[in-house]
Amino acid sequence: MATIPSIATPAEQQDAFVLPAATIAGAPVSNGAPDATPIFNASTGATIGWQEQADAALVDKAVRTAHAALASWRATTPAARGKLLKKIAELIESDRARLSEMQMQVSGKPPVEADIDVGDAAATFNYYADLCLDEKAFAPETLALPDDSVTGERFYEAVGVAALIVPWNFPMVTTAWKIAPALAAGCTVVLKPSEITSPVEHMIAAIISEAGVPDGVINLVNGGGEVGALLTAHPLVDKISFTGSTASGKKVMQTAAQDMKRVTLELGGKSALIVRADADVDHAVMLAVSGAFTNAGQMCSATARILVHDDVYRKFMAAFETAVRAIVVGPPQASNVSMGPLVCAAQRTRVQSLVEQGVEAGASIAFSGRLDQACADGFFMAPVVIAEPPADNLLWTDEVFGPVACVKSFRSDEEAIALANDTRYGLVATVVTADREAARRYKTQLRAGLVWINTPQLIFPQICWGGLGLSGIGRELGLAGLRSYQELRHALADAS
Ligand code: NAD
């Protein structure tokens, strides 16, 4: 698989790269770029490259290639796959600076956030490498049965060809969360990155090839929703792992139903952060800022509904305002930058329009952050905080996916839990409290796949990621992440 050309800095615009429409069996497949779409630098708005689009024939070729590679890849030992996954993790670590740089260009992420993403991707490959090298998770298990005349065995087998579809907000991370367990399980894959941030995935795909993963085991097709739809509908795809909006996830699930394809759906969220009366308010403010404005709020896990106990509401709001006004919004290379731009012009227009609609419907802006001149050309937007929105206001009810947080007060734990759970999503929640017993109650009563108590949004490959309700189906990461690329099977034999 060819590595993509070196990153084009703004001074090198004439050398902008062109990403091939697909990478199949280790080779770039160009279609002459008749309908190539631009890749932007989110902080400057400049075009840094172009991406060719795959068509139905290329999607078919990519899936057939993955299908042809399946039998031999599935037959490799977990230990052999583990060695390759380790090598991928090492190569990601050694390419850390270049991967961070590309992530900063296409997403505008501040250096710290871009670097965390690379570290997370490497950690994920390392985790699944260790799981493979240990081999226990792959060993058949003997069953205790009530009948001595038969023996029973439970075992796991790779599902088959996996279609992996990812969004643009954490491209490298989301891709690693899917590719690492898929390869560990013995699946072959066709990856479709987001059309907005695909250079990062092209780099990861090149690293996977460089590590020695056989040609055909991982393939990549470029394109938007139409290409994703072609991929999910392909009859030779056995498993779909999709991360994106709930609206697209519903379509993916409908398509999967035609062939009973296995599906994992990681979808949207509208999560809550709860500040109890006994909370350390400064710590709560720090968690509120990072929960709402990391990655410019473009997080499925954004805790953009902030619930604050009446007793500390005024103190919290004063400190929150100071903290939000202190957020330095700017391009990654600016000093002390703590929030980057939105990913593209359309995303900024969308978020700004939602704020306007929310305000027209009765939400009031309590305070906002600020932009300075360095933000003139990119897709920047200042953080916005809404106080006490009406319960039916769209800024309170709908996923905004931008730097917009709402704050509401509450008087009792019951009220806080009811407000937090008053959503059809159920991805994550944060509770800030000094009371361990209260934390235990919140942990069980909040409807969320993951609850953080007094911590930032920590995620480790050892835990599982995924939501309840409209936030999706299935879990990524951890042992469950591996199992989601395996079929659980049983065999019974006579004991003689
Ligand atoms: P999106 O649904 O528009 O697109 C996501 C991906 O799916 C893209 O690659 C896109 O090209 C593809 N796609 C779109 N329509 C498709 C279809 N019909 N069939 C197959 N593929 C299709 O989402 P987005 O705007 O790129 O990302 C933002 C959304 O993703 C938010 O709702 C966010 O909450 C969600 N998200 C969820 C998680 C999670 O882990 N739960 C993580 C990140 C983002």
From TrEMBL:
Keywords, in A-Z order: Oxidoreductase
A Pfam entry, by short name: Aldedh
Record-annotated Aldehyde dehydrogenase domain positions: 36-490
EC number: 1.2.1.8
Domain of life per record: Bacteria
Active site per UniProt: E266
Any one GO MF annotation of this record: betaine-aldehyde dehydrogenase (NAD+) activity
Family statement: Belongs to the aldehyde dehydrogenase family.
UniProt-recorded name of the protein: Betaine aldehyde dehydrogenase
Native source species: Paraburkholderia caffeinitolerans
